[in-house]
Structure formats: C-alpha cells, structure tokens
Amino acid sequence: MAWMGSSDAKRRKKIEALERPDYGWIWKPLLALLVIYLVVTLALGIWWSRTPAPHSVERVPMERRGDAGSEPAARGVVTVATLASIVETLYDKPGGYLRNDRLPPGLWLDNMPSWEQGVLNQAKNLARALPSMNPGEVEHLEQAVRGLAGDGLDWYRPATEDRLMSAVTALDRQLMALSGMEAEGFVPGAGLRRWLADVRVDLDDLSLRLASGAGGHQLLQELAIDGEALPEGTPWYRVDNVFFEARGTGWALVQMLEGVQRDQADVLGAAEVVEQWERLRAELAMTQRRLWSPVVMSGQGFGPFANHTLVMAHHISRARDLVESIITRLAESAEQEVAGEAVQQAPASEPEVLDVERNAQPEQEAADQQEVEQGTEQGAEQDQTPSLDDQVGSETQEGQAAEQ
C-alpha cells in the first residue's frame, strides 16, 4: 500500500504544478532583453549625438549640380548650394531629424535636438534673405522659405522631415536656374544687411541666455553685458541645451559665411570688410572645438570645474560685435556708392560750358585782335585817301586858275 500512497502524492504534486504554475523563471529573459535594449539605445544615443562634419563649400556646388557642375554659373550658386546642403544634413545625418521624435532613444536625447534648433534657425534667416538677393523669379526661393517655416516639432502629416525635403528640392531647382551663361545671378550686395541683422539678433539672444547660466553676473563684466538686462537664469538642467544650440548656430554660420563670401567677394572687398569677415568666421569656428567633458559644466570663477557656458558666451558675444561692425561698414559703403552715383549723374552741360568758355576765350581774343588790326588798316587807308572836301577844294582852285 505504500507504493500506492507515493504514487498518489506524485499525482497530487503534478496537479498542483499545473493548477498553480511557478513563473519565477520568466523575469530572467525579460531582464536580459531590457539590458540589451538599454545598451543598444545608449549606443545609438551616443552615435546619433555626434556632430556632423562641416561640408566643403568649394565642392558642394559641383556635387549638387551634377552633370552641370563643370558649366559656368551665375552669382549666388555657392550660397544656395551651401544652404541646401545644411538643410539636407538635418534629416540625412545619423538618426535623422530628432527634435520631433516621440520614441526612445530620440525622446531621451536633448543635446542633438538643441543643435538642430540652432542650425534650423540660421537656415531660416538665410532663406528669408534670398528672395531679396535674386532679381528674377523667386518662386523656388519662396517655396524654400515655406518649407523651413514652423517650429520644427511637427511629427505627423506634414512631418518636419517632409517639409525640409521640399525646401531642399526647391533650392536645388533654384540652383539649376542659376546655371548657364545666360543665367541672371544675384544682385551684388542685395539682402546682405538684412541677413546679418537677423544673425545679430540670434547671437545677441544666445549670448544673453548663455551668460545668464554662467553662475554669477560679476563674471560677465569681461563680456560687456549689463547684468540687469539679462533674462532669467537658465536652469542647471537646461544649460547644456543652450550650449549645443550655440554650437549648431556656429556650425551653420561658418559654412554660410564662406559661401556668401565666395559669391559676394567683390562687394565685401569694396566695403573693406574682408578682414572682419574672416575674423567672424574664425570666432565662430572656435565654438566648434571638441568638448572633452562628458557633460557641459558651469563652474564658478577659478574653481576646479570648467565654465563651458561662459567660454561659449564669450565667443558668441564677440561674433555679435563683429556682425554689427560689418553691418555698419556695409551701410556706409552703400551710402558712399549712392553719393558717387549722384555725382556722376550731375548735369553734363556744366563741364561742357566750362570747356566752351575756356576754348572760347582765346577765340574771342583772336577776333578782337583781328577787329583791331582791321580798324588800323582802315585808318591808314583813310589817312592816305583824300577826303571829299579836300577834293572839292582842289578842284575849285584848279578852276579859278584856269579862268585867270
């Protein structure tokens, strides 16, 4: 009977195991999947957060024009091609456009979306200035402006990526319109001051926001920033966002400045701002130096920790001052050019009258001299020719002598 009891016990254990199963083993594979997911998203986040390398402004126009790259092109090709490449980078880089992501790892990232915001703001500024630079049809340029409009956070129909692609397509069409010998290029110097004015506003805003998170207004005296004019202090958890927005702004502006310089070299040379233009590019290039710290720090004074935001604010504020100086010099050059044209358009009769008077004076003197000489000759003839009274008197005397 013992064996029957043991068999019944085994049967009851099996029934209990089926009725109340033990799921304790399931958490192990779930934990393993979670760890793998976190590792993959962390690796993707690091990869997607790497700043793209700047484009070669010299090769970009030839690459984007394709078969027409070897043909001559009008003024403005380099500017349009540079802007198209910058906008294309926003959705063509590793990870694509991240500002409108709703799922991890893009949802967790904040540095690269802030960088994208800085690039997008500068693309908008240059796109708005392009229609005023082009003397011809501006349909493609206006389409590019509409594609870049908005806050860049749309993720569903139309998504921001779709709008950016439409802007790039419009810029490429404008690029083809500027190709060929008969193409009408941009007006020299047109729209430059408007674009630089928008850039100055953005740089001023960035310098203030960076300075407000620097930790102490006394540190801002070197930047010549009024502490009372600063906005509210940037929270510590958003300091890195403003820092990377400034890096995106500098990344885009360095390429835009080079592209505009290649198209408007004669205008910048006539205004004598080439040296300042190069200094501006060098100042913004300093914002692209490698960040060796894993986090953006905002230390105090000469403490053990660096103050990355204050260093960035220093470069941005100096770039803002250079932009303002260039705008002033371009305005003065434009006024001088207008004044020169006004002088050239003065009445042409004035110098002709002067020339006529200058040439007429010796002619008048010669005429007067000739009249004097003629008068002298006539006087001599009159002296030699007897007058009528003398002739009559002589004839009377001859008659009286004959009668006698």
What does this structure look like?
- With 404 residues, this protein is an all-alpha fold.
- The chain folds into two domains: 57-187; 188-346, no CATH class.
- Helix content is 66%, strand content 0%.
- The chain contains 14 helices and no strands.
- Mean pLDDT is 81; it is low at 348-362 and 378-404.
For the secondary structure, the number of strands is 0
Chain oligomer state: single chain
**Main β sheet profile:** none
Given the structure, what is the number of helices? 14
Annotate the secondary structure layout.
Layout: H1 2-19, H2 27-48, H3 60-65, H4 77-92, H5 111-133, H6 139-148, H7 160-177, H8 192-212, H9 239-263, H10 265-271, H11 274-285, H12 308-344, H13 349-384, H14 388-403
Please name the defining characteristics of this protein:
2 domains; mainly alpha; 14 helices; 404 residues; single chain
